[in-house]
Design the sequence.
C-alpha cells in the first residue's frame, strides 16, 4: 500500500483529504497539534472518525517541536507528504502573529529539513489565495505578481512558497504548492464565514457583513478541493529541461510548481448570504461594517493550470455546497 503523511489531519481540509486517501487504498499517518484555535472537540470528532480505519494512525504533536517530524518521517518513510498544518486565519494573525512564526515558518522549516533527510516521491504544501494580496488583476494566475501581501498570515504563506522552492532546487525534492480559494463545506472551521453566518441565522442573531457587503470570494467546495489535491499527487513536477510553457508556474531551475485550486467563479458576499438564507429558511439580520484590516475585497482563481495538469475543474454549485454544510451543521449540533 502507498503511504501518505498528512499534517493538519484533524483540521477541516486534512480530515476530508485523509478520508479520500483511505478510500483510495493509502495507509495514512495523520499529524496534528490539536490546538485550541477553535473548538478542539470538533477536531477530536474528525480524528475519531478517521481512527475507525485500521489504515489510519494519529500522531498528536507540534510541527515546531525539534526532531518530531525528522524522527517520524525517518521511521515511517511515507511515499507522499501533504502539508496542510498551519496557523490559519487572516484576522487572528493581527492579534497573535507569533503563533504564525512558530507554526507556519518554523514548523514548515522543520518539515523541509525532515524531507531533506528522508526524501519522499512528492511533497505537496498548502499556500493560500491570500498571497495575491493587493493584486487586483483577476482572475489570479499562478505566474501573476504576488508580492504585496495584506496580512501577516499571507506573508508567512508566501515565505513557505519561497522556502519550498529553495529546497526543491537545492535537494531535488519534487514540491507542489497549492493556493486555496475560500474553502467551505461540512466539518468546516467555526471561524469561517459560512459557519458563523449559519450559526447566527439559526439562532436569530445578527451577522457582521464586512465592507458593507461589497466583497466577493471564489468559494470552493471542500470535495472539489480534495479532488484537485488527489489528482496533483500523481502529477509531481520535474526539473525542467526546457523553458516552461506559458502559464505554467513550473520553476525554470527546480522540480517545483504552484497551482491554484479554486472554483473559478467569484460570488458576491450578498449572494452567499442569500444562499445560506435559502438553506436555513431564515432571514439574515445584517450588521453592515467596514472592511477589516488585512482583508481583501475580492478573490478569483484562474484554474487553467489545474485543468492542464489533471483534466479536472471544480463542479459543485454554491447552493449545493451551502445546502450540504447546513445539513451537516443541523445534524452535528442537533438544531
Sequence:
Amino acid at each position: 500500500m502507498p503511504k501518505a503523511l498528512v499534517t493538519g489531519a484533524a483540521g477541516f481540509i486534512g480530515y476530508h483529504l485523509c478520508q479520500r486517501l483511505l478510500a483510495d487504498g493509502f495507509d495514512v499517518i495523520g499529524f496534528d497539534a490539536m490546538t485550541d484555535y477553535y473548538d478542539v472537540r470538533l477536531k477530536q470528532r474528525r480524528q475519531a472518525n478517521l481512527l475507525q480505519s485500521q489504515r489510519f494512525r494519529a500522531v498528536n504533536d507540534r510541527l515546531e517541536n525539534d526532531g518530531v517530524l525528522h524522527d517520524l518521517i525517518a521511521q515511517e518513510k511515507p511515499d507522499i507528504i501533504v502539508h496542510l498544518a498551519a496557523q490559519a486565519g487572516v484576522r487572528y494573525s493581527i492579534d497573535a502573529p507569533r503563533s504564525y512564526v512558530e507554526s507556519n515558518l518554523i514548523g514548515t522549516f522543520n518539515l523541509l529539513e525532515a524531507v531533506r533527510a528522508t526524501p519522499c516521491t512528492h511533497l505537496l504544501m498548502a499556500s493560500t489565495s491570500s498571497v495575491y494580496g493587493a493584486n487586483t488583476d483577476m482572475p489570479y494566475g499562478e505566474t501573476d505578481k504576488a508580492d504585496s501581501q495584506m496580512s501577516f498570515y499571507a506573508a508567512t504563506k508566501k515565505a513557505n512558497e519561497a522556502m519550498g522552492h529553495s529546497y526543491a532546487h537545492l535537494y531535488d525534492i519534487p514540491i507542489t504548492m497549492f493556493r486555496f480559494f475560500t474553502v467551505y463545506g461540512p466539518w468546516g472551521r467555526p471561524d469561517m464565514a459560512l459557519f458563523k453566518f449559519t450559526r447566527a441565522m439559526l439562532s436569530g442573531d445578527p451577522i457582521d457583513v464586512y465592507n458593507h457587503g461589497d466583497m466577493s470570494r471564489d468559494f470552493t467546495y471542500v470535495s472539489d478541493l480534495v479532488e484537485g489535491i488527489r489528482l496533483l499527487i500523481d502529477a509531481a513536477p520535474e526539473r525542467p529541461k526546457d523553458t516552461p510553457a506559458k502559464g505554467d508556474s513550473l520553476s525554470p531551475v527546480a522540480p517545483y510548481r504552484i497551482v491554484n485550486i479554486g472554483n473559478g467563479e467569484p460570488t458576491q458576499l450578498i449572494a452567499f448570504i442569500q444562499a445560506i438564507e435559502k438553506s436555513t429558511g431564515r432571514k439574515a439580520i445584517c450588521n453592515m461594517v467596514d472592511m477589516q484590516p488585512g482583508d481583501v475585497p475580492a478573490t478569483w482563481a484562474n484554474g487553467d493550470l489545474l485543468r492542464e495538469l489533471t483534466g479536472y475543474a471544480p463542479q459543485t454549485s454554491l447552493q449545493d455546497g451551502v445546502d450540504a454544510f447546513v445539513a451537516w451543521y443541523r445534524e452535528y449540533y442537533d438544531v
About this structure: The longest helix spans residues 97-117. The first strand starts at residue 3 and ends at 7.
